[in-house]
Amino acid sequence: MWVHHLKVDPLPVLQASTNEALRYFVRRELLDEEVEPADRLWELPRVAKILKKQREDGSWKYPSGKKDIRSQRNYDKLQTYKMLIELVEKYGFTKAHPAIRNAAGFLFTFQTQEGDFRGIYRNQYSPNYSAGIMELLIKAGYQDDPRMHGGFAWLLSMRQADGGWAVPARTGAAKGSDRIKDVFLAEETIQPDRSEPFSHWCTGVVLRAFVAHPEYRGAPE
Fold first, then answer.
1. FRET partner for 211 with CA separation of 20 to 30 A, picked from 132, 190, 203, 219?
2. Rg (CA), the chain
């Protein structure tokens, strides 16, 4: 068992937690127990507080932000992504719940013809946020949605020459353009410099999307 590889057994502390959702996933993921469907968690008080703030268009409002960096709508995309992390990863939400379908509908409005999810970096490519959104949507049940295939095709088209991924606005920006705000405000979409080394952080986020998908996790790429 995996716990034998650890110096300290974390299970007693985790099982004694007052967090019902945590105890549920400890049983399901760590103890391999047969558990009831996760939708029992969807009625928890914390979930109710999150859902109460969802707006009609499926988004959540970002509480503050510098409008000279990104628009309010792009900030709201960021906030919606953050709320989706909570609902999907912490409480096992899927598209069976209307809140997820509405949130997905909002996020899909940011997917471009190229396949990426644009906006958080204004008009710049964002393999990390694109893949992060895709991972959550896949886990929520959108793995067979054709828009996911478009997203993966785009991710594969954005690889660095060494096989990993990086943020194009960083590798392809003019030398000396170190301020992230300057990069965000660039009118053109900066193309990647594929000769630059991959980013461990960005590549890790992208790979999570591939691993989440039943087909792409086995892709030869």
1. 190
2. 19
Q: Do 138 and 180 form a contact (C-beta atoms < 8 A)?
A: no
- The pLDDT, as a whole number, for residue 185 is 75
* Cα 170 from Cα 29, distance rounded (Å): 37
Q: State the 10-residue block means of pLDDT for the chain, 221 residues long.
A: 92 96 96 95 97 98 82 95 98 98 98 96 94 98 97 97 93 65 79 94 97 95 85
Amino acid (1-letter code) at residue 148: M
- Single out the residue of 183, 208, 184 nearest to residue 69, CA to CA: 184
Report the 10 Å Cβ neighbour count for 14.
Answer: 16
Angle, helices 127-137 vs 72-85, to 10°: value is 50
Task: Find the distance separating the first CA and the last CA of the chain, reported in whole Å.
Answer: 31
